[in-house]
Write a structure and sequence with these properties.
This protein is mainly α. The protein has one domain (2-70). Helices cover 53% and strands 11% of the residues. The chain contains four helices and two strands. The chain has helices at 2-12, 28-41, 56-62, 64-70, and strands at 19-22, 46-49. A two-stranded parallel ribbon has the order 1-2. Helix 2 (28-41) links the parallel strand 1 and strand 2. It is flat. The two termini are 21 Å apart.
């Protein structure tokens, strides 16, 4: 959990992130627990469980061309 919170904190240095959406194949109650923890760690951040239950990996993969073109790799 600390790694996720660190990554969100790093992103917030450059982008005004107000909400994080967590979509996963993991059980919904586990995702909700992660979202609750993340929201409590980061002031002014809302973390919510996504509703993409069928194919969250496909949606994430669809964003890769955008990420490779408009973000700096590390």
């Amino acid at each position: 959990m600390a790694l996720l919170a660190d990554k969100v904190r790093e992103a917030r240095q450059f982008v005004d992130v107000g909400t994080v959406v967590l979509s996963s194949y993991a059980p919904r109650d586990l995702c909700q627990s992660i979202c609750n923890d993340l929201s409590s760690r980061e002031q002014g951040l809302s973390a919510v469980v996504g509703s993409i239950d069928l194919a969250p990996k496909a949606v994430g993969a669809a964003s890769l061309p955008y990420a490779s073109r408009f973000t700096v790799g590390g």
